Each structure stands twice: as structure tokens, then as C-alpha cells.
Amino acid sequence: MRIDKYLKLSRLIKRRTEAKYACDSHSIKLNNRISKAGDSIRVNDRIEIKSRQKILEIEVLKIPEGNVSVSSARELYLVIREENREYDD
Fold first, then answer.
1. Which of 16, 53, 71, 84 could anchor a disulfide with 8, C-beta 3.0 to 4.6 Å?
2. CA-based Rg of the chain, rounded to a whole angstrom?
3. How far apart are alpha carbons 77 and 73 in whole angstroms?
């Protein structure tokens, strides 16, 4: 499964176009390498998502087949690290 589609189905990123943009802007890493939107993911891969507010690192537990309900989306991954980013203005 493509990483941009996985991020959307797992509800880590709201829309697939936003996930593609995040990959294009080097905000997504797959196994410590900058990811492209079309990169394939597998179980046990690690994904790091950098946003303006936080850094989130997850491990892929399941690859969904078809649509995912809101309640089961959280079961697709395990949060490894989550830290808030602070900026000095």
C-alpha cells in the first residue's frame, strides 16, 4: 500500500492530498529515509511525521484492505514517540 493512502486511512493525516504534500515537502520519513508519496509500506515499518506542532513516530501494525472505520483506525499503528515542538518567536 502507498504511504500517502495509509496515512489517510489510518487518520494520521486528514486527506490523501495533504499526505502527498507532506511527503513532497520532506515531512514524512519511512524507516529513517525521506519518503515519496508512492513508496510502499509493510508491517513493522516505522513512519515519522513532522508537522509544525509535533513529531510523531509510529510502527505499522496492520495494512488495511478496503475502508477503515474510525474506531479501528487506531489499531493500524503503534505510537513509538510523540513530542511537541516549541518555537521561540
1. 16
2. 12
3. 8
Question: What gap in Å lies between CA 54 and CA 68, rounded to an integer?
Answer: 25
Query: CA-to-CA distance for 20 and 5, rounded, in angstroms?
Result: 9
- In the β-sheet with 77-84, what is the strand arrangement from edge to edge? 33-34, 28-30, 46-50, 54-60, 77-84
Q: How far does CA 58 lie from the centroid of its chain? A: 7
Model confidence at 89: pLDDT above 60: no
Structure-block grid coordinates of residue 8: 489517510
Domains plus CATH for the chain?
3-84 (3.10.290.10)
Checking if the pLDDT of 88 tops 70, the result is no
